[in-house]
Amino acid sequence: MPRTPRTRFAPDRGLTTRMVSTMFFIGLLYVVFVGVLVVLLRGAWPIVLILAGGMFIAQFWFSDRIAAFSMGAREVTPQEAPELHGAVDRLCALADMPKPRVAIADSDVPNAFATGRNQKNALVCATTGLLRRLEPEELEGVLAHELSHVAHRDVAVMTIASFLGVLAGIITRIGLWGGFRRAGGRDQNTALLMVLIPLVSAVVYAISFLLTRLLSRYRELSADRAGALLTGRPSALASALTKVTGQMAQIPTRDLRQAEPFNAFYFAPAFSKDGMSRLLSSHPTLEQRLDQLGRISAQLGRA
């Protein structure tokens, strides 16, 4: 993993260790997954390798554009959003890091996210719902959280780590929908392959999902800590967290469902009222996040 350019965001060795470990296990899983597909689909191995490699490269190089487009982000100029740009300018100067592109997503779901494989290609986006609800200090706390993701490069790691799960999930769905069975004909060996491939894909998807969720929960706590230490106002971030989480309950279920697939990128998770996403959440609980910010506030007070 390329070395992260130094900023004034507090370094987090625990996050670095977890990112390296996750990338190692995801990479190992990726090699095993492709290897199994090559063995099972003997004659089609060149196609398997080309497709897997092509999708991986596309996911890495275009991840920021794909994510921004999917979440409705529209890049804005300082003239269009002077308050948002001003907050990002102040935080980037404070953190001694390059200014990312700034965007707004037209959504009433109060949230923010960052994308980009490195600091030069980064984009930070806030929704109209967030901008309308937060006070300036609260908004800076949220933006500091998102900028720490860029500084620590965990956005890029999450994007790469999630790729194998996406690929395995697609193959699993094709198998469950009967796509392999229809293509397999009546040959007994082919029929066995059509059962094994979705089964292997499902196992790989489950392992990849768990690994990325474990990393995601830790990186959110790390971003809260780094953002609070940079601004010196953990109470503002805690206030934003409480306000955003409370407002989620008032958002229409349809809008929350549209946002749920992107929870791993968001500042706070969007859960539909009847969803089961809380069981394997991409974020730590609100209580955990507030408890950590409370401890940071006490430490800064003593200092």
Automatic annotation (TrEMBL):
It is found in: Cell membrane. Its cofactor is Zn(2+). It is an enzyme of class 3 (hydrolase). Its main location: membrane. One of its GO terms (molecular function) is metallopeptidase activity. Its EC number is 3.4.24.-. Residues 78-294 form the Peptidase M48 domain. Keywords: Cell membrane, Hydrolase, Membrane, Metal-binding, Metalloprotease, Protease, Transmembrane, Transmembrane helix, Zinc. Binds 1 zinc ion per subunit. This is Protease HtpX homolog. It comes from Streptomyces blastmyceticus.
